[in-house]
Design brief:
This protein is α/β, with parallel strands linked by helices and 578 residues long. Helix content is 53%, strand content 10%. The structure holds arginine. The site of arginine has 9 residues, from strand 10. GO terms for molecular function: arginine-tRNA ligase activity; ATP binding.
Length: 578
Amino acid sequence: MSDPQKVLTARVQAALGHAFGEPDADPAIRPSQFADFQANVALALAKKLGRKPRDIAAELVERLDVADVCEKVEISGPGFVNLTLRNEWIAGRAQLMHGDERLSVEPTATPQTTIVEYSSPNVAKEMHVGHLRTTIVGDAIARVLEFLGHNVVRDNHLGDWGTQYGMLIEHLLDVGEDSDEGMLLETDPNAFYQSARARYDTEEEFAVRARRRLVSLQAGDPETMRHWQRLVDLSKVYLHTVYGRLGVTLTDDDIRGESFYNDMLGATADELAADGIATISDGALCVFPPGFTGRDGGPLPVIIRKSDGGYNYSTSDLATIRYRVDKLTVDRMIYVVGSQQSLHFQMLFAVARMAGWLPDGVRAEHAQIGNVLGSDGKIFRTRSGKSIKLTELLDEAVERAGAAFDDVPHEEPFDEVARREVVEAVGIGAVKYADLSVARDSEYVFDFDRMISFRGNTGPYLQYATARIRSIFRKGGLAPEDAIGPIAIGHDAERALALHLLGFGSALETAGEAAEPHRLCAYLFDLASAYTTFYENCPVLKAPDEDTRASRLALCALTLRTLSKGLELLGVTTPERM
Ligand code: ARG
């Protein structure tokens, strides 16, 4: 265990056990202004035991065995216990972290089978900026939880079923899949959708065929199913391209779209009706989960089966929950989906719990994703009002990254191929990091200039920080792996950097537990800042003596590894040279 906060927690808990028979009390270890940490437990415990907080603190300190870890233990104020770590302890832990493949992040003792459902675009419709954000945030959540040792099941809940398929299939059959129009499915699915839609709205004969096709599809007609499958497959080609360019870890095996649950909808509806949970209202089969009311104050329904016999989005999601709980035996489900669907998920989980399909031990969370806004404060769109094509957006990011890149000084010139590679990584990294660094449920304004800046909490800044560290090693004629220390602490800036490095595991755990990648971003940004202070105050290659130089190089190498690992878990690549 390297994390000081955890080490101190365990030590204080042991003392609480000995002194008061309260080994499970929360020691409430927090970073402190006056020391490294403070334990605030005495205040809460005093209340519980009916004693004075200062007395509790004194007894606690008496029993506290931290001589190896802390240089100073002091009681302050009404009963805070201030804890100052020993430099040797910090250095020793940093050294262990540096020698460890996993950077001292121990795999969790309680691995959970966790579904991370993300991306989930609709077939034959281009992903828009909203889908981009759920894709990027979801991928980071999956990566972090996996690294922490959970059994992560990635799930791309593709919107691949619904009434528009009659129209889309018929259009594909008319134009042919090898035609320019058919090829759009692989390059610009939105355009394909829009021309199918335009024909549906204007050509009566086409509309009649499209409706007939939908009936065949719903009846499972084999010929029609084949065409539908073709349509879905062509759309997958498009997704491959986008995921590939973004470095998103979703594969075809992770796709379990809405169509997958189609056969289970009937039974799901029937069971709800049989159990008396769903009732007929205005001809539709509905559940009214308690606590949800409409604008008129009346109870709000979840519609399970419409009066025409068709099933709903909610029915499909209920079947999905049953499948995941029964067949995949999940412990936790994280739905990374836009915050507009918040009510849908609240009601969905309520109904699933009523039906007994979502046992108490299973966590179901809607990890809400806030809108990405244009500079006008409205949902990000082009001037013509259409949502922006994702590929064009990424191209523009890369182009602008190129301009910014040419503006910063480089040690050595780049040839065109190398430049293009770095600029692609910077442009894509900038867009991804912008999505990740803002609390995921907050809206934010999409602003190329800000996200591509080499200053502030941005992707390029952190990428640049890793490249700068690598350049120290190049100048020193040494590989980072060869910088083995030993780490020792002399300067305050070395101490602050090493202490921050030790918090990597906790930052990951917090991000994983809350499914909030922005917490990891904040940690990495603070780490880069601590490194900058260190670098400005502590010469590395020109250190005053060999031991100091070896120690500082090891701190540089450990910072590099931690930043790189953190960025990797966010899905942001780090060019070797910038
Ligand atoms: N396909 C949906 C959309 O684009 C998102 C699916 C969300 N997931 C779910 N289980 N309902 O809006």
